[in-house]
Amino acid sequence: MFELTEEQIQELKKWNNAQTDDSYFKWYTAQKKNSEEMKQILKDAKFEKGKDLSLDELYHISRLLTEKLGNTALSITGKKSIFEMNPLKRFNARLRNLFFDRAPLVDRVDKFLDLKGVGIMTVSQFLCLFDHFQYAFFANFMRDVFDSLAMDEIQFEEALTQAKKEFGIVEGKYHQRTEEYFRYFIILREIKKVLALESYLLVQNLLWRIYYYAQTEETEEETIAPQSEEIPQMLEDPLREFIAKNLETVEKGLKLIQTKYRTKQGVGEIDILCRDSRGRFVVIEVKRWKDSDKVLGQILRYMGAIREEKGTEPRGIIIMNQEDKRLDYALSVAKNVEVKYYAFSFPISEKPL
After folding, report:
1. Structure confidence by residue, pLDDT tens digits, 136-150
2. What DSSP designation does 173 have?
3. Model confidence pLDDT, tens digit, residues 144-168
């Protein structure tokens, strides 16, 4: 059963009690109005009764969804938009199914995630604005907030276990993104419950404020290492997959075993598990930006689980995109763990490169 720690609850309450300014209430009022407007569009179009929405109506809805919530795939018109990336009739059918079908929610979410360009943020956006009292909204920045609350891998595993039991998620039957959506659903629902918030829009607003002020403080207080631009959250999964497919760039002789390897002890999910040229297991953790020395505790926990599971001493490699002196000091007394760095380069030229 997933539970927040007392420290996490108190930190959330501290932020929630501070939400008393006019901008907070104006934002919530505007979002509730957007929710009602979207439902009126669906009603006028007789969408529930089988009438399809036009592209113009879908883009009208997208403007309501993206106002203060954001989602490039929804707000950009043309081929990059999910409305035009998918056959219009198919998109309408999946959206109607998501909102009005009587099938279990997990099946409706999974079918919607079959659409091209749709991720868990998109499906949660539609559901939340359709009924923000019942359906949680998830955005990528929330992962950073969970980190700032010191939410550990055990809690994430407990949330996933509860989601599987409560929503009937069968291993291997559904998209992994479906599992992720319901894992976050459990976490966000618990936050809504402990803070006695009436709407998931209020949960989103609260977590955004925590994220925003944490980012501001880090920018102001950072003096140890030069600040470089954070790698966008959307690139985190592709980055891990790229590294997994190009392990020779990390170290010659590395052979992939599995990405997102779940330890049998339930202590978390390893980004990349592989073997080196000498047959030793290697635990790789990929961080999209400077993550301080807390990543060391994470990778040591995974290495301990692999040692118990495999009966041999593993190595650890942390891959990140900028130096952190605090991590360097921690690594100086850690055994079998090293750090390596990556960099992105997107050259722009007037002529083909």
Report:
1. 999 888 988 998 898
2. T
3. 899 889 898 899 999 999 999 999 9
* 130 and 53 fall within a common domain: yes
The CATH number given to whatever domain includes residue 280 is: 3.40.1350.10
| Residue 352 forms part of a structural domain | no
Q: How far apart are CA 64 and CA 67, in angstroms?
A: 6
183-189 contact pairs (CB < 8 A, 24+): 183/156, 183/159, 184/120, 184/124, 184/136, 184/138, 184/142, 184/159, 185/136, 185/138, 186/2, 186/159, 186/160, 186/162, 187/2, 187/146, 187/151, 187/155, 187/159, 188/136, 188/137, 188/138, 188/142, 189/136
In this structure, the answer to whether residues 194 and 238 fall within a common structural domain is no
Q: Which domain holds residue 199?
A: 6-218
Query: What is the pLDDT confidence band of residue 315, given thresholds at 50, 70 and 90?
Result: very high
Q: Are residues 193 and 276 in the same domain?
A: no
On whether residue 335 sits in a domain, the answer given is: yes
Identify the sign of the CA torsion 23, 14, 230, 68. negative
Cα(217)–Cα(138) distance, integer angstroms: 23
